[in-house]
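hi! just following up on the protien thing from before. the input was this:
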Amino acid sequence: MAVVTNYTTLQSLIERYLARSDLTADVPQFVQMWEERFYRDSANWASWMETALSVSITSNVAALPNDYLGLKVAYISGQSAPLQRVTLAQLYARYPRGGGTSGQAAYIARDGSNFRFGPEAVSGTLEGTYYAKPTTLRADGDGVNWLITNAPDLCLYGALLEAQPFLKDSTWIDTWQRYYNEALMAYRSQFKEEEYLAPFTVAV
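and the predicted 3d structure came back as:
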């Protein structure tokens, strides 16, 4: 069996599993549909997707990075305490815009393509860590890709699942779904321990 080492070999293996030689032009679509679905689920965001956050705050807002998926931790430069995530409605209810509130920022909320803060008047740099959408398999081509290297089974079975509605064939759905669920559970378990540590206590 061929070893999956890049995007091209992944596509070749998908064709072999489907036992169809007429799907060369369609396989990239199966991979794309699975990959986009995978990244939309925050349960799949993990440490390999973490990127340092450093954005200047201008007119009390900070722009989201172009590859932003979600925030892990953030703070204002010069402050030691991390900002608490709240919804935009919660932020505006506590700190109405134009109210002239100032002081050390304690809260952060997403507003479209920007972050807003409470209290409202903030300056400096927003720093921390966020989950960035990685370069997609199709864009990465045959370059080194974390998913291809560390979870080729996840990519394979995810794409095979996406192929079934296109092929209008339900014969293998249960099989691919079972294999995909096992691969997804193994993927998530790699990062579960570091995300759910024991409660932190300070010795007195």
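The chain has a mean pLDDT of 90.
Residues 7-45+135-193 form one domain.
cheers
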